[in-house]
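Dear Dr. H.,

I hope your travels went smoothly. While you were away I took the liberty of generating a structure for the chain from your last submission, since the lab meeting agenda had it listed for discussion. I wanted you to have the full record in hand beforehand rather than looking at slides cold. The sequence, exactly as received, is reproduced here:
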Amino acid sequence: MEQEEWLEPLLRALGQQQKREFPDFGRHLAARWRRQRLAGHLEGLERLDLPCLDSLLGIEDIKRTIETNTRQFVARLPANDALLWGGRGTGKSSLVKALLHAYADQGLRLVEIDSQAILDLPQILAAIAEADPDEKYRFLLFCDDLSFGSDDPAYRSLKSLLDGGVEARPRNVLLYATSNRRHLLPRHFSDNEEYHRHGEEIIAGETAEEKISLSERFGLWLGFYPFDQNQYLAIVRQHLRLLNNADSEDEWREEALRWALQRGSRSGRVAQHFARHWVGSRGLQDLA
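The corresponding predicted structure, in token form, is as follows:
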């Protein structure tokens, strides 16, 4: 009796999984992988936040590199997975979303996954294959803020996806990931103890090699760095224009610099937050 009570909900859930529906990628430009206890599913996203490539300032070289790679991908030519790493708020995730905005009409689609879903990669790839059996679309697996703990088993699954697994990956799937960590895994002082010298060459130890090997499996490895003051002010100016604000720079410049100083960062995100504050507070004054 106890066994029947346990099996019944399991079989019911498995039956529902077999009947699951997939997003219509003719209508949905993006989907999210929803994890569940027994199996996840793809969920089409109705409302998207997709900036334009031209609105992203201060990262022109990076933008050209990843846009070229994405154009190769949608043209069904060889292309690379990409790791976008660097400081918070520097435009990493915005750049990936802007690529979808630019190339959706050429068949590009995006599937958002989180770092916990890395263990579900075989199911995710199978779901994409079922949703698009004719490979009509090109899919970016987008993992924002990807990182792993020292003993996290998911990073080995990711290594197999990127390079080295026995099963071939679908030709219409690339991985674009963002991270604040250059090598995705935490670095410890104890790692340095494993380095040794061979003549004039410094040789990394096994632990360091293991950590470096994961990020090196991405074909593109793009670093984002903090903006200088002029770049920050240019980005503030751009966001103010997007909010239809025509105030002169003399009016908002000093407050924008104080805003960045208080937050300890001159990033695109801080610039956007300041622009919202400036326009919103001026709007309240007009209503008073």
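Two observations you may find useful: Residues 119 and 157 are 6 Å apart (CA to CA). The beta strands are 30-34, 41-44, 82-86, 108-113, 138-143, 173-179, 196-198, 201-203, 220-224.

With kind regards,
E. W.
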